Amino acid sequence: MRDTEKAFIPLETGRQGRPSDISNTLSLTGFTLVEVLVVLSIMAMLLGILMPALAAARRVAYKTACKENLHGCAIAFRMYLDDNKNIMPTITNMPNLHLIANPIPITSVLGKYVSGPEALECPADPQAKYFREQGSSYEYNTYPPPSPEGPFNHQDRKIEGKGMTMTRRGEDVLVPWADIFILRDYEDFHGKAGKVGSRMYFYADNLVADRERNK
Q1: How does pLDDT run across 188-199, given as a tens digit for each residue?
Q2: Does residue 147 sit within a domain?
Q3: Does residue 20 form part of some domain?
Q4: Which helix (H) or strand (E) covers residue 20, if one does?
Q5: Through-space distance between the first and last CA atoms of the chain, rounded to whole angstroms
Q6: Within a domain: 14
């Protein structure tokens, strides 16, 4: 045999006819039960951290969209007043309950002034219940803040000047427009009932807030 020729030395093979060292390299190792449990516990921990943050972000998004809707309603309401000599409209809350004869839904009053029916839907309205059943997620304020003698109907009153004059205990009292809301969420869609920020309001001075000003 020449020096330049290399001797052929066969490799030891495994059962499949492959070299045993290659077979060992290609063999697959499965996860142990402990490793699986560790991965699952980490995933559960991450979900526990992320879910409250996602829920909070969703609430903020719903509230922002509701605020934008009420801003659009404020513009529509102003347009209605311009066309009707600043006279407050007559609107029936919960019209589909037919609590009174010939109810007047808000859609028949502001329908032609808003961008579309969805402008009257609060995204936080659960399953759009009020929007589907009543045509609006927002309640119209039929009365100004109550007086000791009872509420004063302002549907035929004009929005003008600094506020609305109401008679309380025989005296005329000026209630600022900033303290009289026009529309608000039917319920506390944005938080726990009674908590500040749980309900959005559109006031007669065209501003939108997440709380009652007159309290």
Answers
A1: 999 988 888 999
A2: yes
A3: no
A4: helix 20-26
A5: 109
A6: no
